[in-house]
Amino acid sequence: MEQSGLEAVFLANREALVRFLRAQGAGDAVEDLLQELWLKLRGANTGPVAAPLPYLYRAANNLMLDRYRAARQATQRDTDWSEMAADAAPGVDRAVIARQQVAMVEQALDSVGERAAAIFRRHRIDGIAQRRIAADMGISLSTVESDLRKAYAALVALRRSFDEA
C-alpha cells in the first residue's frame, strides 16, 4: 500500500516525534499518542501539506494539549464530586432528603443511557480504571471519557437543581 507524503514523513520521523512527546511530558502515553496521531493522519482528507514535519509537530502538540485539558477536567470533576459528597449534613431529615436525592441521581444516570450509566457506576462506585472499562466493554478510552462527561453533566445539572431548591 502506498503511503501519502504526510504518512511517509511521519514514519521517517517517528523517533523524533517520540522524543518531542516525551519532552512535552507524555510519559507512558507516548505510544498511545503516536497511534492517535497516526490514525488522524490516516483518516484525514488533507491536501498537500507545504511543511509536513512542522505540521506533524503541531498535531502532536495539539494532542498533548487535548490530553492536558482532559486530565484537568477529570481532576475538576473529581474535586466537584468530592465537594458534593462532603456537603452532607447529619440528621433524620437529611436522611430522608438523601434517599430522595439518591433516587433522583439514579433517574439522572438512567437518562444518559445504559452504557454511560454503567460506565459511571463502574468507574466511580466500583473504582475501576477507565482504560480497563474501555477494554472490558470493547470501546475506546475516549468513548468512556465521553460517556463519563455525559453522566457528570447530568449530575451537575441535578446538583444545581438541588442548590436552587
Tell how many strands the DSSP assignment holds: 0
Strand content: under 5%
Element pattern in H and E = HHHHHHHH
- Unreliable segments of 5+ consecutive residues: none
**CATH fold annotation of the largest domain:** Arc Repressor Mutant, subunit A
Individual helix count: 8
How much helix, percentage-wise, in residues?
over 70%
CATH architecture title of the largest domain: Orthogonal Bundle
Assign an overall shape: elongated
Q: What is the CATH domain class of the largest domain?
A: Mainly Alpha
- CATH homologous superfamily name of the largest domain? Winged helix-like DNA-binding domain superfamily/Winged helix DNA-binding domain
Secondary-structure content class: mainly alpha
Structure description:
The chain has helices at residues 5-12, 14-23, 30-43, 52-86, 92-111, 114-125, 130-137, 141-164. With 165 residues, the chain is mainly alpha-helical. It has 2 domains: 5-67; 88-164, Orthogonal Bundle (Arc Repressor Mutant, subunit A). The chain is elongated and about 70 Å long. The N and C termini lie far apart (62 Å). The model has no long low-confidence stretch (mean pLDDT 87).
Primary descriptors:
single chain, Arc Repressor Mutant, subunit A, 165 residues
Question: Could you write a compact summary of the structure shown?
Answer:
This protein has 165 residues and is mostly helical. The protein is built from eight helices and no strands. It has two domains: 5-67; 88-164, Arc Repressor Mutant, subunit A (Orthogonal Bundle).
